[in-house]
Amino acid sequence: MKRSWMKGVACYLVVAMFVIGITPRVYAGFSPSEAISGLSSDRSSDLDKIRKTLEMKMVRERLAALGFTPDEIEKRVTQLSDHQIQELALQLDELQVGGASGWAVVIIVLLIIVAVGIIIYVSGHRVVLEKEK
C-alpha cells in the first residue's frame, strides 16, 4: 500500500515537472501609455526626485569614483530635456534599492526545508546523525 502511494506521488511529480519544463516563458505585462504618463508628473517634482537620489551617500561616492564633481552632475541634470527627466524619474521609481528582498530568499529556503522534512516524515525514513569515534 505504501509503495503504490509513493509510486503515485513520484509519477505525479515527474509529470508535473515535465509540464512545467515544457511550457514556454511569456514575458507579458502592461505597457505604459506615453500620453498618460506625461500627464502624471511635472518637471519640478521629477527634478526633486532625481536630486534626492543624487544626494544619497552611496550614489555620491559612486559618481565621485567615476570622476564626476557635484557641479558637473548638477550642470548635466539641468541640461536634460523634459522627456529625459521624466524617463529618469520613472526609472528611479522602478529601481529597487539594494536589489531583491532578502526575505523572499529566506522564506523560499524555509519552505524547501519544511517540504523535505514532510517528505522524509511521510516516507517513514529516519535521519540519524552519529558522531565518529
Short description:
Helices cover 70% and strands 0% of the residues.
Name some characteristics of this structure:
133 residues, 7 helices, mainly alpha
Structural features, described:
By secondary structure, the protein is mostly helical. The protein has a domain of 57 residues. Helix content is 70%, strand content 0%. The mean pLDDT is 80.
Number of helical stretches of at least 4 residues: 7
Spans of at least 5 consecutive residues whose pLDDT stays below 50 are none
Distance between the termini: 39 Å
Q: Write the H/E string, N to C.
A: HHHHHHH
Radius of gyration, Cα only, in angstroms? 27 Å
Q: Residue-averaged pLDDT, rounded?
A: 80
Strand content bin: under 5%
Structural class: mainly alpha
- Fraction of helical residues: 55-70%
Outline the biggest β-sheet: none
Global outline? elongated
How many strands in all? 0
Topology of helices and strands:
Layout: H1 2-22, H2 34-39, H3 43-54, H4 57-65, H5 70-79, H6 82-94, H7 102-123
